[in-house]
């Protein structure tokens, strides 16, 4: 990896430059630590806006930002594009596609990956939305399907191409189905006047009796109402059991049903993006079990943060939500703890501060739940959602381009390019 070994400094290797990993990399004291940051990409992805890339509202560059731009490069900091495969905890060494490196402290901040719950057909035939590549694939599919639909006289084929089944009624599923409904209501009539808009159908399939499960009952009901008004078909208490590329099998309120669709988007489950090499006993529900200092159980010098880590406490017996805030807060706490530890000061327990949840449903429509039961819906919630997402995007250029694209969306000037097939 071409990184010098300096005996006076402890080497911290961080795997993953996501929301959590970046916080640590920025904050570790480089007078005491040599910081080595590794990521399989040379950019950070702002995942909450992936669905807007998929539905042609934003271009991919506006939600990605060069990692070398984010972190000031000086002595004792090294970034390498590397995909890490394995950890050898006995030799304090990790293995990657660009070579191996020893560490004094290892921090795993690799985020999450899609969980298909062992359903092989669905895994091979459905689409996911975990990366910029996934979102571009989805964008290409949507607009390629419209182009194919417009040239066919076969009504059934056209409907198959234009029916979208989104599995999972969390924020991703809700936001994606709302955005697809906007395409149906605004883009389709303008760009494809010779297609009957009623041939496009959007289904949102949710296993429980509530969408946006992490939000209040009121916000969940509001989102349900807004989505229905936009024309999304919502099936609650429904589980997708199989898919063959054309027919989705669903158990809906204990009754077997089918939907014909060439487009299934799986947003129903996530699990930690684990790295091999550690004892299987430290893995629970696909995440590394860590203590209140984010130290992986059984290992003195290996830590995990964010989606890949699970801190179990009384309030969060199943771990913290797999969202941005726990990752950022754990990253900040762990950096402070390591900076304290190296000078002989005490480390402090991590305490999660829940800053709330929000989801956008469509133009002028969103729901926000904040602490102290502060709730917003409609236009105000939509403005809050936009403001919070804008300030959290990395890069001034990205903020400006995103804002301009959001304004242009009102004129239906979205980026509907089919770049790949
Ligand atoms: C579509 C979508 C929408 C979302 N919407 C929201 C939302 O609205 N609000 C919210 O709070 N959260 C949302 N989330 C969840 C949020 O993005 C995650 O909780 C957050 O990114 C977790 O941060 P992290 O630091 O743990 O991991 P990440 O930010 O995912 O970063 C992990 C990093 O590790 C790298 N990496 C992974 N494996 C390896 C490897 N083997 N070697 C090298 N590098 C590796 C990745 O390239 C990545 O850069 C959404 C997620 C998705 C997918």
Describe, in plain words, how this protein is organized in 3D.
The chain is of the alpha/beta class and 421 residues long. The chain folds into two domains: 10-114 and 271-342, FAD/NAD(P)-binding domain (3-Layer(bba) Sandwich), CATH 3.50.50.60; 120-268, 3-Layer(bba) Sandwich (FAD/NAD(P)-binding domain). It has eleven helices and 25 strands. It has helices spanning 19-27, 50-54, 67-70, 120-125, 132-150, 155-161, 171-191, 217-230, 324-342, 378-392, 396-409, and strands at 10-15, 33-39, 43-45, 64-66, 77-81, 84-88, 93-96, 99-102, 105-108, 112-114, 163-167, 201-205, 233-235, 238-243, 247-252, 255-260, 263-266, 270-272, 283-284, 287-290, 302-304, 309-311, 357-362, 365-370, 374-377. The strands form eight sheets. Strands 5-2-1-9-21 form a five-stranded parallel β-sheet, covered by helices on one side. Strand 11 (163-167), helix 7 (171-191) and strand 12 form a beta-alpha-beta unit. Helix 1 (19-27) packs parallel to helix 9 (324-342) and helix 5 runs antiparallel to helix 6. The longest helix has 21 residues, at 171-191. The model has no long low-confidence stretch (mean pLDDT 94).
């Amino acid at each position: 990896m071409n990184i010098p070994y300096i005996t006076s400094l402890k080497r911290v290797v961080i795997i993953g430059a996501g929301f959590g990993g970046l916080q640590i990399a920025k904050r570790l004291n480089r007078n005491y630590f040599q910081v080595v940051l590794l990521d399989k990409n040379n950019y950070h992805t702002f995942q909450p806006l992936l669905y807007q890339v998929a539905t042609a509202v934003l271009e991919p560059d506006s939600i990605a930002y060069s990692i070398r731009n984010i972190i000031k490069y000086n002595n004792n900091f090294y970034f390498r594009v590397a995909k890490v495969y394995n950890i050898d905890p006995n030799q304090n060494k990790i293995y990657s596609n660009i070579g191996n490196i020893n560490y004094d402290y290892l921090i795993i901040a690799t985020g999450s990956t899609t969980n298909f719950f062992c359903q092989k057909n669905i895994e091979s035939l459905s689409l996911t939305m975990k990366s910029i590549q996934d979102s571009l694939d989805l964008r290409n599919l949507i607009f390629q399907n419209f182009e194919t639909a417009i040239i066919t006289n076969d009504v059934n084929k056209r409907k198959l191409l234009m029916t979208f089944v989104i599995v999972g009624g969390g924020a991703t599923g809700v936001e994606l189905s709302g955005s697809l409904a906007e395409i149906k209501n605004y883009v389709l009539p303008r760009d494809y006047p010779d297609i009957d808009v009623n041939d496009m159908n959007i289904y949102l399939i949710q296993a429980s009796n509530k969408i946006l499960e992490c939000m209040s009952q009121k916000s969940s009901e509001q989102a349900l109402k807004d989505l229905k008004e936009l024309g999304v078909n919502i099936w609650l208490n429904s589980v997708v059991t199989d898919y063959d590329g054309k027919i989705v099998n669903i158990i809906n309120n204990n009754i077997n049903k089918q939907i014909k669709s060439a487009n299934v988007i799986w947003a129903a489950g996530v699990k930690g993006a684990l790295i091999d090499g550690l004892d299987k006993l430290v893995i629970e529900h696909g995440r590394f079990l860590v203590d209140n200092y984010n130290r992986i159980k059984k290992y003195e010098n290996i830590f995990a943060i964010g989606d890949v880590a699970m801190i179990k406490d009384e309030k969060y017996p199943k771990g913290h939500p797999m969202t941005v805030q726990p990752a950022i807060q754990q990253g900040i706490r762990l950096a402070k703890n390591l900076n304290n530890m190296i000078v002989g000061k005490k480390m402090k327990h991590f305490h999660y501060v829940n800053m709330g949840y929000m989801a956008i449903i469509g133009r002028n429509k969103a729901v926000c739940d904040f602490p102290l039961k502060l709730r917003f819906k409609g236009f105000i919630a939509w403005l809050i959602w936009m403001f919070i997402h804008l300030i959290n995007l990395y890069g001034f250029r990205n903020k400006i381009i995103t804002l301009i694209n959001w304004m242009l969306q009102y004129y239906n000037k979205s980026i509907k390019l089919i770049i790949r097939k």
